[in-house]
Amino acid sequence: MRGGRRASGAGRLGVAAATLALVGCTGGEPAGQSPASQVPAPEPTSLAAYDVAGAVAARAPFCDRVSPTGIEHALGDVPEAHEEHANGDRFRLPDGSRSVSHEYGCSWTAPDGTAARAWVFAPPVTPARARRLAADAARGRCTRVGSGDFGKPSVALRCRTEEGVESSWRGLLGDGWLTCTLGPVDDPVRLEERTEEWCVAVLEAARA
Question: How many domains does the chain have?
Fold first, then answer.
């Protein structure tokens, strides 16, 4: 994940809390019932329950449209850090050299280090290149755990890293190559399920 601009997740949460506080002071609500209690948080949605057919991922910024509820469902906690990068942003490689980003992406990190990430390539991707990207992603310490449910082509992976286990979906939606990952975690129970729900939240935000 390549970081460009960095902004604390606490700032957004603080604005949301202040907004709710102001609404609660306006009056006009039945006793004992707040506006927040009238609008339940949306439940996470699995890929099986989501209509991906015909979905197109816009090759454009999308991070500010990702549902805060979806982020918290994925992480199992309120994020303590948030990073974004855009097409054309410069970043430093591990060897000290610099390169330029050709994607739009973002990540949210929980206090325990679990990160929910997503990015979409800025240049258009053909089906042939998408198949190569899927094959390349499956190399190393990765196992395919699904395919065909997040665009065509698409691939779901479970990968082992030095920090733990990471789960991901990658897929071609229109001409946009979209990736969403969740992890690393020490205990991978429900990891694939949580990743599916996270990817639905990402796709909702990235749809053209």
Answer: 1
